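Quick one: sequence plus pyridoxal-5'-phosphate SMILES, need C-alpha cells.
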Amino acid sequence: MRDPLLLTPGPLTTNLITKTAMLRDWGSWDGAFNELTASVCADLLKIAHAQDSHVCVPLQGSGTFVVEAAIGTLLPRDGCLLVLVNGAYGERMAQLVEVMGRRVVRLAFADNEPVCPARLAACLAEHPQCSHVGLIHCETSTGLLNPLQQIAEVVAAAGRELIIDSMSGFGALPVDARQLRFAALVSSANKCLEGVPGMGFVLVERQALARSQGNSHSLSLDLFDQHAYLQRTGQWRYTPPTHVVAALRSALDQYQAEGGQPARLARYRANCERLMRGFDRLGLKLYLDDAVQAPIILTVHAPAHPAYRFTDLYHAVRERGCILYPGKLTRVETFRVGCIGALDLAEIDQALAALEGALRELGYLEHSSEHHA
Ligand SMILES: *Cc1c(COP(=O)(O)O)cnc(C)c1O
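Reply:
Sure thing.
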C-alpha cells in the first residue's frame, strides 16, 4: 500500500531514504548525536550564506513554536513588532505577539497583494516605537511571495530589525545573508527541506542574539538559553527530537546531492508550471496573479458548480491517492495544491489525473470551464 501523495504546504511527502534514516535510536547525550546536531546547524547556515554573520538555533516543536520563540527572544519586553499582514500566517504572527503581552502594530494588505515597501517606510516613520518588523516570506495561506530584499532594505534604512518567517520558502527561495540584513529567519524541517515534522530552527544574527538575554517570557522557548546550552554542552535543552534530526540530516544530504537551493527551486518551479497548465486545461482559475505567485503552493478558485463542496472533492481525490488542502480565505471559495515535497513531474501528473477524475465523477467539470475538451 502506497501512502497518498501530499499536495499540501507541509508536512509533505518525504522519500524512503529520509524515512529510513529514522530507524535508529540516538542517545541525546551521546557524542554521535551532538555531532549530528552540529552538522545540521552548520549546513542550515550555509544554505543562507550566513555562517559568518548568524548562528543556527534549533528548537523542538512545530513551526509556530519557533516563530513564537524567535519573537519572544529577540523582541525586548518593551519593544514593539510591526507585522506585515497579507494572509493568515501574518495574522498569526501578530496574534502570538499579543498573547505574549507585547506591543504590536499591523500593516495590512489584501490577501492577493504583496507588501508595499513604500507603505512600510511610511508606517515605520509614523511608528517610531516599532523596534522590529515581522514578515512572512511566502504567505502559505495563498502562495504569495513578498518582496523580501526590498523590505529588508527599508527596514535596515529605518534602523529597525527584521524577523522573517520563511517557513514555507527556506531551502527553495534564495536567501543570501551577505546581501540581505535580517536579525532572524525562521523555518522548519518539514517544508522545502523535505524532512519530517517536529523541529524548526532560527538563523539569528550573532549580535542580536547576544543582546537578547532575559527577553524571553518562556523557559522552553528561550533561544538565548537554548543556544548558550548548545554552545556549552553540544546538547539541546530538554529532550531533542532525535529521529527528526536524523531525518533532517538525511534530507540535507539529499538536498546537497540534488544541487542545493537552485535545484530545489527549479524542481518546484517545474512542478508549479505543470500544475498551472493542468488547471488551465481543466478550466480552473488561480487566485493569484503570476507575478506574485511563489512556486510553493497554488490557490485555486473552486469550480463554479452549485453543489460544490470541498469535502466531496477532497474525498474523491483522496480515493485516487492524493491529498489536497482546503483554502484559507474567508471571502472566496478556494482550495490549495502544493508544489513542494519529494514530488516530481510524474507525481504531479498523477495528481492532475486524480483531480480530473474527481471533478468528472462529481460533475464539477462542465461548470469550471468554457474551453475544456
Ligand atoms: C507552515 C508554516 C508555519 C508553521 O506552521 P505549523 O503548523 O506551526 O508548523 C508558519 N508560517 C508559515 C508561513 C508556514 O507556511
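The two ends are 33 Å apart (CA to CA). The domain at 16-257 is CATH 3.40.640.10 (Aspartate Aminotransferase; domain 2).
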